[in-house]
Amino acid sequence: MVAQNVKEVIRKLVAMQKIDEELFAFRREIRQKPEELAQIKARFDNKKDLLHKLEAHAKELDLARKAKELDLKSKEQDMIKADVSLMQLKNNKEYQARLFEIENMKVDKAAIEEDILKFMEESEKVAKQIEAEKAVVAVEEKKYLAEKDKVDAAVQKLTEDSSGLESRRREVMIAIDKEPLALYERIVENRDGVAMVPVVNNACGGCFMHLPAQVINKIKKYDGLVRCEICSRLQYLQEDL
User: In 3D, which of 168, 227, 151, 143 has the Cα closest to residue 21?
Assistant: First the structure.
């Protein structure tokens, strides 16, 4: 490959590199947008989870209260039966024993009533928390949906712009020989979109390692493409182009 041909290939690859820099930037943004949205959705989901836990706790309290109310009703029926049975007792010993039993029932009834009151108070407290959390969830949902619309629109715009760049890239690619193109493609994919780098102040523009004079002279000869020994990128001299 003569010097002029190598220099021309480098010019085309540099032109392609400029397109690829934009393309890879678009691709990074397209990847990042859903990740940003996922973080907002995670916050929204966490708020929903808390609301669901509060609602589940409210149901548990309601079931526990109803169970206690059944216990209370049963206890009241037992007390009525015990009161009625007093008239049927034949001796004082049995009468006193039944009175003692009724007193214990009253103590149990009072404890059940206290439990019911506690459940009612806790239910009222949880109900207020649920209403407050519903308002928070509504705000988070609004934020999430608004951000989702923005992300969807941004991704669509980025995709459209990428499509235009892909068309330009194909036009440039057609004019490049297969061998240098294949080499460039391997490097650009492995190096996150940067395959062609200029020499800057006698250093590689990719990894910034100092280049000895013989390497720079080799680049100036233009008898082949020169790769950095450290980062493997293709090097060129901007002033020669």
Answer: 168
Q: Is residue 128 part of a domain?
A: yes
Q: Is the dihedral angle over the CA atoms 87, 90, 96, 97 positive or is it negative?
A: negative
Confidence bin at 13 (pLDDT 50/70/90): very high
| pTM as predicted | 0.59
Q: What single-letter amino acid sits at 205? A: G
Mean local confidence (pLDDT), 8-24: 94
As to burial, measured by CB atoms within 10 angstroms (0-12 exposed, 13-18 middle, 19+ buried), residue 42 is: exposed
By C-alpha distance, which of 86, 82, 87, 85 is closest to 102? Answer: 82
Say how far apart CA 29 and CA 27 lie, in whole Å: 5
| Same domain? 54 vs 170 | yes
At residue 120, the 3 state secondary structure works out as helix
Which helix (H) or strand (E) element contains residue 66? helix 3-86
For residue 207, the enclosing domain spans 177-241
